[in-house]
Amino acid sequence: MTMSADTMIDICNLSVTFNRGRKPVKAVNGVSLSVRPGEVVALLGESGSGKSVTMRSLLRLHPKGTKIEGSMTVAGRDVMGLSAGELGALRGAVVSMVFQEPRLALDPVYTLGSQIEETIMRHEKISRKAAAARALALFQKVRIPSAERRLRNYPHEMSGGMLQRSMIAMALACNPKVLLADEPTTALDATVQIQILLLIRELQKEYGLSVIFVTHDIGVAAEVADRIAVMYAGRIVEEGRVADIIRDPRHPYTKGLLGARVELAHGRDRLVTIPGAPPDLAAMPPGCAFAPRCPQASEGCLSEVPALLAAGEATRVACVQYA
Ligand SMILES: Nc1ncnc2c1ncn2[C@@H]1O[C@H](COP(=O)(O)OP(=O)(O)OP(=O)(O)O)[C@@H](O)[C@H]1O
């Protein structure tokens, strides 16, 4: 499959079904999304909406027995057609990941410096000395103070924010084209969270990275992304440019997420959430998955799944109101 010049990531009609329990669970259901070179797309939605599963599919990081349907290309590679070895080569060198909990992604018994060096040496023919010099430059790039000394630290000797900076340094070590970020700031304090978001945005611009950024926080999505894709129960329900989504949300679910955020910003004493809960993915209702919680639902919503259709210049929305 060839990549057109203006897409770095192309996900086409992706469905992912897990077969672990008694009933198969379709965690992702017909998702199509593309990311241009140098573009940041946020996948936004509540826990369990399929954001991480969508993102992890790009490196086929699912347990054995998981059914993946559809097609995906990343930097011109047909992901479903890659061998395990080719996937390994893609990971780290072309596509890097940053996770919510860096401690789980790092090895506690090696220093941060040696882990970065190993990452570089796994993908490139390079001496340890040259790899060490690159590790130092990376630590300085992500603005870790006393970088030389910090490289000799073990993960447990670093704060959460500094550890996430180390992870970002490691993710950039082999000059990837794509960064996949799964809630990388969720576990951090608010002020550290902002610093890390700004750092990611700055490095993304400098390196021209394409980024998929998973978050449940519409404020974080607005801060970091060019475009937002809102997911609900395994589908994209709305997708468009950040400014359009924030100024003129169309889907009642997006409006709900934005409403919750506005309430928070006005210092109300509790987090206002959308009443109700997402459906059980193993027993999906017919029709629009959001209908049972939707203040605007009509009878038709309970029988037919709305298609994701163009609404306005650059927005797509899956709601009968705009069909
Ligand atoms: N390996 C797995 N086996 C079975 N079910 C899974 C597996 N991974 C994810 N799921 C299920 O798929 C659904 C979507 O999960 P996913 O992690 O993508 O959600 P999410 O939107 O990223 O939410 P979160 O913020 O909680 O990560 C969930 O119901 C989850 O339980």
TrEMBL record:
Subcellular localization: Cell inner membrane
GO molecular-function term, one example from the UniProt record: ATP hydrolysis activity
A GO cellular component entry from the record: plasma membrane
Example GO biological process: peptide transport
Key words of the record: ATP-binding, Cell membrane, Membrane, Nucleotide-binding, Transport
Entry-linked Pfam families: ABC_tran (PF00005), oligo_HPY (PF08352)
Keyword Transmembrane helix attributed: no
Residue ranges of domain ABC transporter in the record: 9-258
Top-level taxon: Bacteria
SMART domains named among the record's database cross-references: AAA (SM00382)
Membrane topology: Peripheral membrane protein
Residue ranges the record marks as coiled coil: none
Keyword Transport: yes
UniProt cross-references to PANTHER family, sorted A to Z: DIPEPTIDE TRANSPORT ATP-BINDING PROTEIN DPPD, OLIGOPEPTIDE TRANSPORT ATP-BINDING PROTEIN APPD
Family that this chain belongs to: Belongs to the ABC transporter superfamily.
Protein name as it appears in the record: ABC transporter ATP-binding protein
Protein species of origin: Ciceribacter sichuanensis
